[in-house]
Amino acid sequence: MSAQSAIALVTGGSRGIGRATVEALAQRGIDTIFTYKNNRDAADQVIAVAEQAGARALALQLDTSDTPGFTAFADLLRHTLGQWEADRIDFLVNNAGTSYSALFPEVTEEEFDKLYRVHFKGVFFLTQTLLPLIADGGRIVNVTSSVTRIISPDSMSYALMKSAVEMWTVYLAKELSARRIAVNAVAPGSTMTDFSGGVVRDDPEVNRQMAEATALGRAGRPEDIGQTIASLLSPENAWITAQRIEASGGLML
Predict the structure, then answer these.
(1) How far apart are CA 156 and CA 115, in angstroms?
(2) What is the span of the domain harbouring residue 158?
(3) Any idea of the CA torsion for 130, 167, 118, 213, to the nearest 10 degrees?
C-alpha cells in the first residue's frame, strides 16, 4: 500500500451508509475520495465532517449506472489523486445504490434494467475500469443486503442483483488474489437511512417492527454499517477475503 495515508474511494458517499463509511474511515485516519450523484451540498457537508476528524476528503460527481462515462471518471480520479501526490487508491467501496420494491407480477422491464445497471452492471464495470488504479495489497468491499438471506417477496428484483454481487465478490477475490487484493461483501439489515423513502428511520411503527425482528433489539444505524466496512479495511482484518459479512444485528434469525 501507499507509504502515505491510505486512500479510499467510496461510491455514494454523500448520504446514508456511504456517508457513515467516509466518516468512519476519517476517524481512522484514512483519506477518502467519494462520489455523489446530484446533491453537492450534502457532499460538502461530508467533506467538512471528514476534515474535522483530521482526514482529507474530496467529492466527485458520478452516475454509477452510466457505464460509458467510467473511462472519463477514471481519468478524473487519476488527476485527483495526483493532487494528493498519489497514483493509486488502497480501498474501493462499492456502495452507491437505489431501492426498489415490487411483487413479481408488478416488476417492469424498465425498472428491472435500471436496477441491473446500478446494482450489478455498474458495480462490475466500474470496478473493472478502476482496477489499474487499485494498489496491490488493497481491498474491495461491495455493499449488498440482508435480503439475499431473508425472503421479502417485494424485494425479489433487488435481491437478485445483490445475490449476483455476492457471487461476483467470491470470484473476484479469487481472480485478484495474485495481487493480494482482498474482496468482501457487507450485507446490511434494516437501517435507518433515507433508503426506501426513509421508512425504517421515519415511520415509528416500521422501526418498532424491525427492532422486534432484530436479535440485538433495534434497527440498524448508518454508523453500524460504516464502522463494519471501515473495520474490514483495517490492518487487523487483512486476512479476510471472499466473505459475505452480514451487519444486521441478527435480523430475523
Answers:
(1) 11
(2) 7-247
(3) -130
Q: Are 38 and 94 in contact (CB under 8 A)?
A: no
| 168-210 per-position pLDDT tens digit | 999 999 999 999 999 999 999 888 888 767 788 878 888 998 9
Longest Cα pair distance anywhere in the chain, in angstroms?
Answer: 54
Tell me how far apart the alpha carbons of residues 22 and 164 are, in angstroms, rounded to a whole number: 25
Does residue 229 lie in a domain region?
A: yes
Task: Name the residue with cell 473511462.
Answer: 71
DSSP letters for 48-66: HHHHHTT--EEEEE--TT-
Q: Is 252 within a domain? A: no
Given a contact cutoff of 8 angstroms between Cβ atoms, the answer to whether 162 and 148 are in contact is yes
Domain count, the chain: 1
Given 36, 100, 158, 171, the catalytic residue: 158
The verdict on residue 2 lying in a domain is no
Q: Which residues is 94 bridged to in the sheet?
A: 142
Query: Would residue 158 show up in a list of annotated catalytic residues for this protein?
Result: yes
What CATH number is attached to the domain comprising 129? 3.40.50.720
Pairing outcome for strands 134-143 and 57-61? unpaired
Percentage with pLDDT > 70 across the chain: 98
pLDDT digit string (tens) for 24-58? Answer: 999 999 999 999 999 999 999 999 999 999 999 99
d(CA 154, CA 30) in angstroms, rounded, equals 38
Q: How far is CA 60 from CA 3, 16, 90, 248, in A?
A: 24, 17, 17, 29
Q: Which spans in 84-121 are helix H?
A: 109-116
